[in-house]
Write a structure and sequence with these properties.
36% of the residues lie in helices and 17% in strands. By secondary structure, the chain is an alpha+beta fold. It has one domain. A hairpin with a 6-residue loop joins β1 and β2. α1 runs parallel beside α3. The two termini are 17 Å apart.
């Protein structure tokens, strides 16, 4: 995931490196990713911060971020879009698949005008290369 993060999110400056010397590289990547999505207008029902929002009947692009809480490593597992987000999140089959691993899955969404859904979804699929988006490949992560 670090290579995707490096391409998608600017590195911290040297002053910030001195502020959190206790953080692991995975924790730094997670903080940088979360800062990026928050600044980019993404919201989630899975937090208590300012980016908290419930799923409603709106058009939106959404993603599932799979996080290992032991070491804070993560992968944006899936990016999708829906004209009715609340309905789509009810029993989403990929969410169940991603969550099967026992890792924490954080759900994020970005309200998007209906006419821009496909283009915005494509943009984030290209940015994050999620392993559960299967067009032309096998779904999920490859394990050795």
């Amino acid at each position: 995931m670090a290579d995707v993060i490096s391409n998608a999110i600017p590195r911290r400056n040297s002053r910030q490196n001195k502020v959190r010397p206790w953080m692991t590289a995975a924790q730094e990547d997670f903080v940088r990713w979360r800062t990026f999505v928050e600044a980019d207008g993404w919201l989630t029902p899975d937090t208590y911060g300012k980016e908290f929002a419930w799923f409603t009947n709106i058009p939106a692009v959404y993603l599932f971020n799979r996080i290992d809480m032991n070491d804070w490593s993560f992968v944006v597992a899936y990016v999708g879009m829906s004209t009715n987000l609340l309905q789509r999140m009810t029993g989403h089959p990929v969410l169940a698949e991603v969550a099967e691993s026992g890792l924490y899955v954080q759900r994020w969404f970005k309200p998007t005008p209906r006419e821009k859904l496909r283009a915005v979804e494509r943009q984030y699929i290209q940015k994050f290369n999620p392993p559960w988006n299967i067009i032309g490949k096998k779904r999920g992560l490859d394990h050795p």
